[in-house]
Amino acid sequence: MKILGNLIWLIFGGIIIAIEYFIGSLILMLTIVGIPFGLQTLKMGSLSLWPFGRTSRMEPRGSGCLYVFMNVLWLICGGIWIALTHAFFGVLLYITIIGIPFGNQHFKLTEVAINPFGRRIIHT
User: Fold this and answer.
1) For residue range 58-104, what is the model confidence (pLDDT) as tens digits?
2) SS3 string of the chain?
3) 8 A C-beta contact, residue 52 and residue 105
């Protein structure tokens, strides 16, 4: 079921979201200051490429003041808009019964977009 959900996700827009994240990651990695942010968008791109059967968890050692500072800076510099976009698409997909599993994936991406530093992608 995970494979079928991932294939449908890719066909109906998941590949576009992933490509956008990968392009944004490459652009952010052009500067030395943007490398940590580029790594986080790369993490979100990999999750958006194949979201069914994967989840994100906070790392046990991921609770430091550097992670908090980087997450706040991330939100200010654009992470809030990414999170709001995923939340909007999640609500939009929840309107139909067929779209509920795909809305859940957008809400998963919303959670990662709000707080990407200190998270790890786990296969379930």
Assistant:
1) 877 656 788 888 889 999 988 899 999 999 999 999 999 889 999 99
2) CHHHHHHHHHHHHHHHHHHHHHHHHHHHCCCCCCHHHHHHHHHHHHHHHCCCCEEEEECCCCCCHHHHHHHHHHHHHHHHHHHHHHHHHHHHHHCCCCCHHHHHHHHHHHHHHHCCCCEEEEEC
3) yes
Please state, in angstroms and as integers, the Cα–Cα distance from residue 92 to each residue in 30, 31, 52, 107, following that order.
Answer: 35, 36, 19, 11
What does pTM read for this prediction?
Answer: 0.86
Cα–Cα dist 61/59, whole Å: 5
